[in-house]
Amino acid sequence: MKEKLFTKNFTLLVLGQVSSLFGNYILRLALSMYVLELTGSAAVFAGLLSAATIPTILRILLLAALSRFFVMGVTLVGLPFLVRTVLGDARYYGAAESVLAVAVIAGSMAAGVLAGKIQKGGLSAMLAAVGLCIVPAGLAFLLPAGTGVRYAVLVAAFCGMQIAISMFSIYAVSMIQQGTPEYMIGKVMAYTSAITMCAQPAGQMVYGFLFDGCKEAVWLVLIPTGVIVCGIGVAIRTVNLKEA
Questions:
Q1: N or C terminus: fewer CB in 10 A for the chain?
Q2: Percentage helix, strand, coil, to 5, in the chain?
């Protein structure tokens, strides 16, 4: 027997989301018109509209900085260290880098194909997906497995990370540009580049020390990192749903 889609609870959920979105739109419209009527100033009106976009932009900036810190730290430090030092064979590193380059291209192409289909919570979902990809890489070093198996799992996990992070980067930049007033785009994008560029070397330094300290148990670095990144993505997605 097929279950009905429009059950009572599902209908109430849909109606609640609709009423929430409608209320947010009415509040934004009424507040904007009130300010314009009260001040008669286009500058103040524009300032109000700009201020309304700040929380969204800051959230995306936070996600971008976190992704650079965790993902680039794990990828740029972790992959060569794990292949060369832990697995003990540098011959496979070149092949791994080549496959990762293909994954970056695949992620960029996927972002283009799926353009317009990713919803508001898509960025947090992509970050959560990155975390989910890191966890198997850690499990490969926690559970008993041969070098070949660990290498295959490692490359597959890092490819998944690269696809997700490539899509994330493209959508993050696009959302920041769409949500930023035209006269502020230059400054906001400059701040975005500066923040993400600072987060990347910080992540590399932190993970360099972490991998050195856990050389005999690298899963202690990979699994907690995957859980943390996934948790951040889920938490921010939950906040987005509550605000909707």
A1: N
A2: 85, 0, 15
Q: Which residues contact 34 (CB under 8 A, 6 or more apart)?
A: none
Is residue 163 over pLDDT 60? yes
Identify the pLDDT of residue 1: 44
Least confident of 30-39, 52-61, 198-207: 52-61
Cα dihedral 76, 225, 131, 121 sign: negative
Among 187, 168, 189, smallest CA distance to 232 is for 168
Quote the CA–CA distance of 193 and 175 in Å, as a whole number: 14
Count of other CB atoms within 10 angstroms of residue 212:
12
Q: What is the pTM of this model?
A: 0.68
Residues contacting 165, CB < 8 A, separation 6+: 67, 71, 107, 126, 130
Q: Can you read off the two tokens belonging to residue 103?
A: 């994954």
What string of DSSP letters covers 124-166? HHHHHHHHHHHHHHHHHHHS---HHHHHHHHHHHHHHHHHHHH
Structure tokens at 21: 């979105």
Q: Which residues contact 204 (CB under 8 A, 6 or more apart)?
A: 72, 73, 76, 77
Instruction: Select the more confidently predicted residue: 204 or 12.
Output: 204
DSSP three-state, residue 220: helix
> Does the structure show a pLDDT above 70 at 59?
no
Between the alpha carbon of residue 172 and those of residues 18, 51, 158, 192, 210, the distances in Å are 26, 19, 20, 10, 28
